[in-house]
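Data availability (excerpt). The following record was deposited with the supplementary files.
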Amino acid sequence: MARLLGKWQRNKYVGVSLVGKTLAVMGFGKVGSEVARRAKGLGMHVVAHDPYAPADRARAIAVDMVTFDQAISTADFISLHMPLTPSTKKVFNDETFGKMKKGARIINVARGGVIDEEALVRALDNGIVAQAALDVFTEEPPPKENKLIQHERVTVTPHLGASTMEAQEGVAIEIAEAVVGALKGELASTAVNAPMVPAEVLTELAPYVVLAEKLGRLAVQLVAGGSGVKQVKVIYTTSRNPDDLDTRLLRAMVTKGIIEPISSSFINLVNADFSAKQRGLRISEERIVHDGSPAEPLGSIRVQISGVGSRFASAVTDSGEVSVEGRVKDGVPHLTSVGSFDVDVSLEGNLILCRQVDQPGMIGRVGNILGEDNVNVNFMSVGRTVRGKKAIMAIGVDEEPGKKTLRLIGEVPAIEEFVFLKL
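Predicted structure:
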């Protein structure tokens, strides 16, 4: 499309400035979203229409999702990236062209059949469409007598698609980068058998993906016996429309965090749902709207496991679930609650949770025990219900404490229970 726009700007018929012009992207898949990204860089206002594209993909690059009629009636340029289906066949016809802004320019790099070619000729002749750029036709190769090929206000290319040198080079680089990323264990936005998440949404969700896995890992380690987990509920808070929040990736990572510590299986985005089903693990989800910045896709994630006992009684809520909650702060996952207790500890390294009588000196005493074992404390937080009553101390540690060190922590008189958790 960029090549066609460049050719238009050099065209003897018209010199078009793109800055401030509206581009309607019809079909907001991978190609459509990339076109939108580049058009934004050219200073264009971009709207998009795609009944199947998630709104968060468009929001991530500041594109407005609109209806079909809104798109075609407001656009100066219309770029087509939709598949050819019974519902899209000749969707651009006399009626459609009649709704367009006079002087609009249309680009078709999708499928020829989505445009009624005779209707486009009429729209060009009567001035509704100022110019057209076509890479595809209903019949390919088009016959010499095709009126669009002969039309002086039509720029055509022979369905170049992925056949250009630039496209071939780009695909090769993309494949190499995807392989390297996969070997490093990074998330792949193009895996065909994993939850499909656009690259821009994947970038936005990346820290929440880490948080989701670690919360799952924490929750299952708090369960007595671990393997008895059958019912899990994941609760997301968001300031966005809950219907726009695609949580498939996050659910897969919670599943990974829950299953791996209690099995010999390696869980990934591809097999997470299948592995959960094999083990009789049912994961339900709930989305709750809260007041917050719409720039952040999520406020918090809570993982609740029901119908189980706990190694750490304080992790059990009044309604009987083992519960942990976290949020992302400055790009770093944090644990923010355990059971009914509020805490604030970075989820890096490993974690020690202690329930104790709320009294002076507890932080120093436990810190000294860890220091004697050369265990570095990277974060510490204390949450309590009422002053002088019960409190939970959450301690982030870089190393795994020895058995003797853990025994000494448990022997501190004011500590009623504690648990060591691997992240």
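Summary of structural features: The CA atoms of residues 336 and 343 lie 5 Å apart.
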